[in-house]
Records
---
Amino acid sequence: MFEVHPDNNGLRLAGRLDAAAAPLAEPHFEALCAAAEVDMAELEYISSAGLGVLLKAHKRLSAQGAGLRLVQVSPHIAEILHFSGFDMLFEVVPAGDSA
Amino acid sequence: MKLSLRRELGEIERIVAARRALFAASNLPASLAYPVDLATEELFVNMLRHNPQGRGPIALELEAMAGGVRVSLADTDAEPFDPASVPPVDTALPLSERQVGGLGLHLVRQLVGAVHYHHRDRCNTLSFMAREEPADV
């Protein structure tokens, strides 16, 4: 199961962002029009389809001088972001860090 | 454990349910769950995308082995497609040069290593072994 909730600073993700869920997430990311935080505290799983949604939105927003900040990132998800090189493209804040 | 998968993304949910059942029945370590789920999803999605004319089901087999889990996926009416022919992704490129897509097989290689490919009588078979890391001694 996957859920995406808009909140004050951006989006809050929960559950499994797989290839079946990515089309559900995409409109929420497309609706972002300024710098935004993506809260991943309750995100259990992300595959390449979900990473594609993040990258597409980040490229679009960065071209406007904004971008996505990935926060409350669990160790499992952080490892996937690292293998993808996304830790060099996004600001990634691990779970437990308040920075 | 064997499953016959319809050619639709909604089947990922059944793949995960089967993996959970196998892990519970075989006392497999939780650390292998993410690599098995991700590699199986990416290879299944690749099979769907590279064979849009395919009509038959895709056969999935999950098997607990000494030291890990073996997974195989077979598409019985497909043109040859060897994942090893897909060039590696350059994950060091700056944001402006990164393309959306193409990360699936890269992540599979990172998480489970080599994917074995076999094509015979129009049947594409992909398999991999997700291994437990040796215990610290």
Note: The first strand of chain B starts at residue 2 and ends at 5.
---
Amino acid sequence: MKRKILDFPIQHPRLIFVGLAALAIGLGAAIPGIQIDTDPENMLSEHDPARVFHNQTKDQFALHDLIVVGVVNEAEPEGVFNPASLGRIHELNERLKSIDGVIARDVLGPSTMDNIEQAGPGTIRFEWLMEEAPDSPEEALAIKEAALRLPMLRGTVVSEDGDSVALYVPIESKDQSHRISEEIEAIIAGFGDHTDEFYITGLPVAEDTFGVEMFKQMAISAPLAALVILLLMWWFFRSFALVLSPMIVAMTTVTITMGTLIASGFPVHIMSSMIPIFLMPIAVVDSVHLLSEFVDIYPKTGDRKAAIKEVVGHLFAPMLYTSLTSAAGFLSLTLTPIPPVRVFGVFVALGIGIAFVLTILFVPAYIAALPEKRLTALLSAKRDASEGGLLGRIVEAVGARSLRFAKPILVVTVAAIAISGYGISQININDNPVRWFKSSHKIRVADRVLNQELAGTYTAFLIMKQDTDATAEIVAAGDRALQGASDSIRGRWDALKAEAEVHSEDEVSNVADSLIEATSDLVFDTSGEESEQWQSVQTALEEAQTRSKTFQNPEHLAYIERLQEEADALPLVGKTSSIADVVKTVYRELISGEQKDYRIPGSTEAVAQTLLQFQSSHRPNDLWHLVSPDFRESAVWVQLKSGDNQDMMSVKSELDAFLTANPPPEGLRAQWAGLTFLNTVWQDEMVGGMLESLMGAFVIVFLMMVLLFRSPVYGALAMVPLTITIVFTYGLIGLVGKDYDMPVAVLSSLTLGLSVDFAIHFLERARTIQTETHDWRQTMSLMFQEPGRAITRNAIVIAIGFLPLLGAPLVPYNTVGFLMAAIMAVSSIVTVVLLPSIMMQIQDRLSPKKKSAAPGIDDTPASIATNKEQTA
Amino acid sequence: MKTLTKTWLAAVAAAILVSTLTTSAQAGDLKDASQIVNRTNEAQYYAANDGRALVRMKIVDGKGRSQRRQFAVLRRDLKDGGDQNYLVVFDQPADVRNTAFLVKKHASKDDDRWLYLPGLDLVKRIAASDERTSFVGTHFFYEDISGRHPDEDKHELLETTETEYVVKSTPKSSKGVEFAHYTLRINKKTFLPSKIEYVNAQGKVYRRIETAKVDTVQGQPTITRLKVSDLESGGYTLSDVSNVGYDLGIPDDIFVEGSLRNPPQKWLR
């Protein structure tokens, strides 16, 4: 069976070429239909309770994702509060409103906000803060003074120091934010000569811009890596024609996999955009093993068909197993609760399968079809290639020493593991989509400047909610008022309730309002005792309704006030805002305008009437961003100066502790929402999920290894390089203080797949050679020939091949590039240096007492022949 | 004098009515947009010499959540199309009961406005500003309740249909207004607007006021159901007017600050 599979490509190379080309073109045709999804929110399943609540909150409080535009002026003594700068800000403020996708009515800025202030004794004034740009410096300063007096604006629209201004641009959907930010930039560019500096930031801009850059990187980084890999292989194998085949395998694999992914209707998320980058080394590695052996064997016989058959026959099993284990590593990602990571895992696993099939089918067909003169070139360069040149000498020398210093090497390894263990304990789990850009990126610059000037561009919401059924309580109050009333009146009341119920379903109104209206009509329409009775029902209903308005109750507002004080005291919190701030501000202006009256009035009625005044402004609906119209839910806005997940977590745990120590009155429930908060939720799931999937994969790979080698000892040995690589790389991350973020988490599965690859090849070959030599020392020195070279070559190709990623402007790509190099370096060194040392130490347990049969996975005589030739 | 004017106007209206019946429909149509708008202003805001109404407003937001306001209004005209006085006393929701507004509306200068908040036991004067702020959180603007002075806009008669005049009104000054222009559809007989649409700078209708019901009370065509819609947020406010009375003889001396704290119950119901 295997024979047939192996012979087929050599006999029908054309069929293979045409078939693959058709497949690649067919599926590749789907790629232009690509849909990009850079919304980190999608890291959570649509049904995730935290995400569902976040979206309910957004809907309930009419909250939209915000683009923040900051204006700073260092040249003017009063910052931007001069007529010219404010003129530009006013123009920007007005023009923003007509950008498509901007929710004009909710744009926050000096021109679209109301001022409330004293206008002489006993007089209050509501007006636009800046209806027109000021004409004089005095007017400009007056605008600043007014804004600084309004707690809702201070630190948000106007910086604390009164030098800068920020506009908050609500947008309909996040995926438009890059375009909108570009339109804003275009307006700013039209301002001509001035000393103002404009900065644009906000999580949606960062996320959407990341998508745009990511798209560019897929077109730049991945092909650049491919080019470097190609050049390196050319240098190693000295035959361009030959090394083209791994590249074709890699490209075809990527094309087919991405084509399938896109054709299946999956959007390309940040994770899936890295599939090409992950698949490339995996696809190349198998081919490099094949070519390595081919260039060793072919010159000896000169019969390419025989040589390639022999090589494939010989490597089929180890390649199948490395592919299966790598695929298992990635498939384990489906254990995580994060949808994009699961898609990523499944398609990388699929890609690995495709790469294996392509390697087995395409490379032999390709070699069989190569023109003769291409291979003659190989024959002439053969000495160099098969002896390995400089690389070969180095590997051999290192190998020889490693055997001599086996014990010290083990000691060093143990020490390295210990240090790595400490490093792992130092790992800092943190992420922040804004930090996915390099520090010099304009979004990062804007983020730094604006978070220094303003109260914070990252927002989380602490939602306080009264859970009881208000309507039931109000109706019950009516029932109580009619205890002992005549049957006819109670019958009438029951009818009213039924009517109100029907009414509330038919049209927009609520049961309590309908009942109050109906009873108040009855008070007029009836007379005498009956009228009085209805009056008492009406009063009872009204009292219950007033009571139901939780966040009009001064006691509850005072609790929120305390909570805010607690939050404001945290260094990471720039500012908090709530319904209490609105009440206090309007109350202050109603009473005297003086700070002593900046407080919550004493009764629910006073609060309601204060708020009625706020609602008589230009923007009455701003109230509903802070409280629901039934006053039973309220949102405390927490503005953070940092969007780092760990900063959000620390603020949350501080405030949660306050909520536990000081329980809110009357069973109010507190819950978190907001993009900044949501990022911590998926990070949490990711870290936990990745650990779980890594553990799962580790066990599966171990079992596969035991099965493959039919030996627990070999199985355990195969796990050594990957274990040390994982421990070492993550130890390194901990030691250098690099945050453990999304790309770092996902790389663990790649480590698993690639490190075990080297170990399988090494152990399988070592065992085969040992069955012939019956001597471990001799086996090892043979291992430092071709097998050692193949592994080292592979490691170098991949490690250097991915260095171009370090030039990308996106940090996750840099991380992948760096870690890929580290993983390759560590796992190859561990395999070539440490494995022999360990094997020498435990050689008695490795060789069976009696000479056993060939090592199960490979029973073709070809492999023995190969080794004989090599030995010779 | 005033009554005379009224009678005269009624006579003219009757004559027009008769003429429309006897001759072609177009014969009696008014041609001057300003004249039409002035008539509308009077029909809508100056019916009779004084008036009383109970207003129930239901505010519904884009998500279908509702709130309501209920208040009584007393009005007395000092001059048709000119100065008039309003007293507004809230009854619902109960937590704002007895909150009151006193407005002395002036044709040629800013209105005088006072406010009484019983929960704070506070009378406050409200300084003049633009009049396009929300009326107590409803989708109506203060100006929709008190009437926009016809002189603030330039009026252009776009069309005269079988039953309606269509007038386009463009503000003379863009200061204090959020619209570029608005279009009024005015009933030829009652001179009450049936629909007003506000158009923004982008040329989009973003706000609409529709007359849903007109009743004739004491011979006065009166809008008893009015709906204002915010087309951007999807919210609307429905205003139902009942208990309407005209020419009740409401005395001028109740439109004083003192009535804010002690509303004249006699006239309110």
Note: The mean pLDDT of chain B is 87.
---
Amino acid sequence: MTDIVRNTQAASTATTASTATTAANTVAAIVPSPFSVVLRWMSRRWQHFILAPLVLLWLSPMIWIVLTSLKTKVEVFDPDAGILPAVLNFANYPATLAVAPFGMYLVNSILVTGSILIAQLVTITLAAYAFARLEFPLKRFLFTLFLLQVMFPIYAIFLTNFVTLRELGLINTLPAMIVPFVASGYGTFMLRQAFRQVPSELSDAARLDGCGHLAILWHVYLPLVQPTLVAFGIISVVTHWNDYMWPLLVTNSDSVRTLPIGLGLLAKSDSGADWTRLMAGTTLVVSPLLLVFVIFQRRFIDSFMHTGVK
Amino acid sequence: MNPSKFNLSRRKFLAASAAIPVIGLAPGLIRSARASGPVKLQFMYPVGVSGDINRIVSGMVADFNAQHPGIEVEAIYAGSYDNTEQKVITSLGIDEPPSLWLPINSALQTFLGLDALEDITDLAKADDIYDDFLPGFLNTCISDDRLYGLPFQPSTPVLYYNKDAFKAAGITKAPDTWDELLVAAQALTLREGGDLKRWGLTVGGGWHDWIFECYCRQNELVPWQKDKVLFDRPEAIEALEFWKKMVDAGVMPAASTWQGSANDFLAGHTAMLYHSTGSLTNLRTSASFDVGVAFMPKNKTYGAAQGGGPLMIAKNQSDEKKEASWTFARWMTNTENQAKWSRATGYLAVRKSAWESAEMQSYLVEVPAAKVALDQAAYAGAFLQVPGYHRVREHLKSALDRTLAGEVDAASALVEANNNSNREIERLMRRQKG
């Protein structure tokens, strides 16, 4: 994430610098001294020399994935072949799509990840508000329980969760992948800390104006902790978008499965991975997330700078 | 299949211990299937070889369903072998196992310990199973003379070699003994200045314990019995000392990874490679040079441990379902389907008659390397069928790695792995009895 922050900084520096260069060019046209122009350019843009390699470093896995997805199988390992594919071989993409119904998986992934996010935002907001601003018996004890939940590895409770879901009759349905994650101890903790930083004078003032708890929450607290909500949202979406083991365990039919299971078909241990198709599949799986990130880039970065999460 | 996932076995123990009390209650809970409508079976399978195997399996299942109106099989892709095992054990834990599944053969004792497997000895004896299946493959499903599964997709390690590199080094034939292997590896190792350009030999890491068992078998030692391991025997120690010798001679890397070693071979960074027959199709079609396939070199004898898995039938289900499951398992392993499956995947066909079929004969003409794996299968036996084999494999791999890295000598590493493994096995068996 740090690199992205730097990228934006680089971008903004670039804009200011380019106006400056235009000015410098005008000056140079009057007083032709190429050396001083270069020197000035360097002094204004020295950050680029540090940032450009960092950008490349951050982008290189992405570039490599895309390039590999366009190669032929022999080319991937041929030491004589260059980094760039000799011919752009788009055939890997249809070949990947033929392995599994990726379109259906994509819809399921969006439904599951989206439902989890919405449900979590509701539950953690209410829970965090209660823990931050209300007094009730056993508050500390209950909060400790919430924190304990964060410490349990998900694998330790697979079987109990599975039994519960079966009793609810949810095995092999989309809700089976959603229900166990509708509450989040981590999110509650994060949001409670954010709520506690909101000055209580603000909520007192709202109460004097006749607001109830829900109105205070909606009009006072939530607008102020937006960055935390966004930060939590990213973490939640990335986690559940990429989750493999739980969806594999609770689903049987193609019609309810998610993207990582489709990817799993291509990463085979007996024979070595099918790299070209695996990379084509990876490109397909990460691109929706990348797209969302690019669209909301500025807001995401703001929120991370705000909450100090890196 | 992912050797680094230690938590898998922890989860499995949790699931297994939860399953034991439940299974005791099982017979009373079996619901009789409705008389009307087809018998519905669930079949969980892993995909261990890249390609469109899940398409092939679901195609086979669709064919079966079309030919058998009374039975409806649902094919459920369940990830890797480890994932599949976990999914099955979880369903056993809630007393609703799938009718059939396809685990790795090493899991036999694990499932027997859970009392999960239907004994199919009598059904098989009434059929042609004992006559037509290759005995080496059938043996991987036998415990105490009873049969608990039908082999479906066996594989063994073989020695792959780079024919171009052999030609350049003036070697005319693949090594046949350990000594020849060392000599060939020395000739094939390329160094320019102090820099290594090519290893002579690489043992596919991650599953090197599997290949190590082959070495033990080449020394006339089966390094396990159904309730203990025998890693501390002199034959095993000698095998590991030979590996160490190759590492010390600078012809073999001390460590590698399963996929990385295949990639190195394809990139020409190693001239010889121990890897699964399951990789044959991938290596053959991805390499920019001619790929040779040979027997694993012998010491006292040829020997191989078998990977891959059998079809197993659940004990905890109605008789009607058991019968339908048998029909399905029998159909999946019939001559015609085995020939098709072997040809499409690179796994070895399990029936003699399948190898004799016209389809396989033409395949052997096209890919003579497949014959090597079949011939070697005559020397193959089951791989590490002990309870808790996941943990045992980790102990053994740690001993191999530490020895090759020069931290301990072969004998003390293997003795330690042996004792740790046997303690683990005893603990598990006590728990299953109690």
Note: Chain B touches chain A through 51 residues (CB under 8 Å).
---
Amino acid sequence: MNFTIEVNNKTITARKGETILEALERSGIKVPTLCHMPGLYPTGSCRMCVVEVEGKSNLITACSYPVEEWMKIRTHSPRVVNARKTNVELLLSNHPDDCLYCERNGNCELQKFAEDLNVRERRFPGKKNKYKSDPSGSSIVRDPAKCILCGRCVRTCDEVIGAVTLGFIGRGNKTIIGPPFNKQINLSSCITCGQCIMACPTGALHEKKHASDLQNALHNPDIHVVMNYSPTVSVTIGEKFGMKPGRDIHGILNAALRKTGFDRVFDTSFGADLYITELAAEMEQRLIKGETLPVFSSDCPAWVKYAEQWHPDMLPHLSSCKSPQQMLGAIISSYYTKLYHINPDNLYTVSAMPCTAKKFEAQREQMTHKGISDVDVVLTTRELAEFIRLNGIDTEQIEPELADKPFHVRSSSGKLLSVSGGVTEALIRTLHYRITGKDFSQAKIAELRNNKDYREVKIKMGDHKLGFAVVSNVKLASRLIAEIKAGRDDLHFIEVMACPGGCINGGGQPIGTDNAALKSRVKTVYETDDKDSIRYPYKNPALIGLYRDFLGEPLGSLSLELLHTTYKKREVPL
Amino acid sequence: MPSSNLLSPDKLRDFVLLNKVSDNTPEIEKKLSLIRRDTVTKPVIFVGTGTCGMIAGAGETLQSIRNYLSEKAIDAEIVEVGCIGLCSQEPLVDIQLPGKRRISFTKITAPRVESLLDEVLNSALPDGQVLGQYPHPHLEAWEGVRMLSEMPFFRLQNRIVLSNCGIINPFSIEEYIARGGYKSLTRVLRNYSSEKVCNIIEESGLRGRGGGGFPTGKKWKTALSADADERFLICNGDESDPGAFMDRALFEGDPHKIIEGVAIAAYAINARKAYIYVRAEYTLAVDRLKKGISQATEAGLLGHNILNSGYNLTIQVREGAGAFVCGEETALISSLEGKRGTPRPKPPFPAVRGLFGKPTVVNNVETLANVPAILGNGPLWFSGTGTETSKGTKVFALAGKINNTGLVEVSMGTSLYDLIFHIAGGVREGKRIKAVQLGGPSGSCLPEQLLDVKIDYEALQEAGTIMGSGGLVVMDEDTCMVDIAMFFTDFLQRESCGKCIPCREGSRRMHEILENITRRPVSESGHETLERFKGVMQLENLAGVIRDTSLCGLGQTAPNPLISALKYFREEFEEHIFDRKCRANVCKDLRVFYIDIEKCTGCTACAKKCPTTAIIGSPRNPHFIIEDKCIGCGICYDVCKFVAVFVR
């Protein structure tokens, strides 16, 4: 039911049941918000969206108050603007005031509020809370001094992802957000997905920086530095250089990275092809031998950590395949070094990922071979963009180049891993070929190409009718596990990504992404797949070459040694 | 307990509540009269063992009485009762001898037990400790002893909610039933529909006693008419205002009244589950409530198919973890759900979407304690008391600088003046009253000239304060209003849940600004002086924004103590700010000490103790305090044996 309300002396249309904020947004009236998270139940904690409603003695929050027919609203009256400004000044009065040194300088919501509301004076001098930052985590650094307690990270961790690590501690102005008992994050159940960083309006949460060593390594002639960048990074990094969302700049990226001094630049899509090939072989073997089913995907390290922590009994269900990053890393340090006569001790493998959990993954004790780490350093998309900028490279003035041999060709299946549902779609194609010997006829699987939290598809392959499910948060993964334990047996493969939407929306991606940008990124990935000439890993000549010259066959002894891993129960001290 | 040997709760229920006639009716009637103590066969000694009594030493008193009786082999009954309201006179001991009226004695600490019992058990009276006697139509009166009801403290009260407090044994459901308890519940379950109960309460004009004053019947109706498969009733006993103890006294003195009120309210909104949320610090209250609930369940007055009405109800006592904000209904609900006790935005109101997302009514303890009487006597009886908009009575916890601190219940419409100067006996030591703080930390201070205001939701609001839950603190001329504003602001900034910005950050800044005002300029640099004045300039704007934008009642009312103090005692603030003077000499940093050279003997005691060497002078000659060095600690004042040091 529609009706009209009066806003700032003009009439706008509102729908019954919606909030004032929704009605205002639809009519193009902007009210600032801080704690508001579309799709989640309003908490009304930041009071930034307050408006004046005639007949109400106090200001009310637009994000939580339902519109009613009688309403006369003023969104920017002096009283409202003064209230917003005072609240921002109050936040600033307990803020470290070190913007120039801050991770988020120029990309900070608090800074923006202060600017928009024309805060030019320190009206409230007073004591500030003193907190130390917590660098203990493998991926995420928490700096409570900068936290303005909007609670978005807490809600993301709890309601969106389901990791339930962060929470409010204490009360009054001593309130702090942190892991249980405000202990170090490395002792907590944090799965390092980094979505809290994406939710944070200030610099209170950021990834652990790993780029500092890199500059030295690149300028050391004795060290052979290779780059292993995710197919997702090339789709999103352009946004950091001011390009429109959804532009895949892998060619420019190849050239730019070479300019910064990388000896070789590889696209992890090749690793993704390898992952799909091994995963399909593993699936086929488990199906034939009747081993543990269903299989859970293992390319998302945040999910793997979650499973090790909370579902140790389900670990045999996890695919033994290393993730594409680690697979390519392992192949680089073995096959590639052998091929080009490089001493593996002098090899320095850098990967660039849309993810913070990959930092954790690269440090897993299982991810080494003969004492050499598969991957030495992991950078996020953000860090990589900073690194390119640091090296004075203008991405607008650069000619695209190809990735380096011997991993220069990829199939578009590998590219699909960027989005949630992609692993499953790619797996279905290869598995279908392995089982039936024929290409999978469906060009795209519509059931998997949407943005629902839970997706499911049933596919017939030869004698098998196989069930595939896709979830992109660990909360739903836990629910599925409960269903499976309760006897559900129609599923054979479950793809779990910790981040909503998959790596394309990962915790290492540019901050401040809106839904439209996200859609453009996804569109690009699917378009690449639709148009690509090589769509199947088993038709990738470089991959075929690798198996012919080095690995032998999927699940062969060398594959098992290099490309597969193990998991173990992980205790959570807190 | 002897009374339980008299008649089982089941029998009582059948006979009193369900009017089942049996062969031995006269015998049961006789036993009932024994339970009511219309007649006693041996001496009965009542000891007030509420928290206030226990703190005053009632535990030891009780032990001494037991020892005395066993040593002398006297057959007497000891009954523990709650608080009758005269907390300043605790430990209170009442004695009822066979055939004689119950008589009350004050301040009976353990050492006084022996002489008291020696005399009273021999029908004599000790000097100075008699409070008064209870009226009774048949029993013989004590000669020369006033009736309790003649005392101004009791005479001006109208005890509906507190009718049983301090009189009956809170551990005995029999006594409660024998005195008319659970009759209303029985009537409701047998004769009334839920809608009818809501209507009666609405008609009575009962309003929420937690402070907001929302019409109770209306709230119930909203919950009853909300579309849901499940509803909850919550009794809010998270009483945390400093100086307030209405709920505690009720829980401790008459738990069954609350249980009956909860049961009726739950029936009225068709809830099958009710919670009583009590502060964990109220150990006695929790204990008595839990016992009461199990007694009522055993008697078939709670639980499955109550009195064959087909209605089921379980009541659970939940203990709060001590957060002030959990008194706010949505925070309380969060806490009950097992989550962090922080408020949620309203709407949706709990009556529509509350505990576990279901319609929930949260009522104050006193509100629910009114319910059985309203159902028993009818809505017109209730609305006959009080004012146009505020019906019935209100319980107040009197604290501060008055003679009779304690718990009282007065009709709405009584003036604050009567309450303070007649019932509470006026200000201690004959000092002048300065202000009255009503409504706890989020209430306001009223000055002396406004004490004629009537106790009525609207009248109090007009005067610039709120009814609040019933805490009333009286302050005399020795109180500094800046200090008081600072105390309450500090309380609220520490108790803020930390969720919304204005309350979390704003109340802290407000407190800091007040702190700066009370700080001495000596230790201040020019920059600090500037900051202090800047703060003062922001104070009113800041208070306005906190009130305007905070999420819940705690934040919205956090500036009240400050705003009201600024309104009525502005000159005191200005003295602090501009003259750097505290007229009540409370703000330590602003005190400056002087030495009267006439009185000073030059003993050097003060100079030796002064921590800042601000006192100079040679032995046997008058000393002198250097004002700029003095930090106002007052050590010189304390050590001077010749009263030569004075403060100005």
Note: The radius of gyration of chain A is 25 Å.
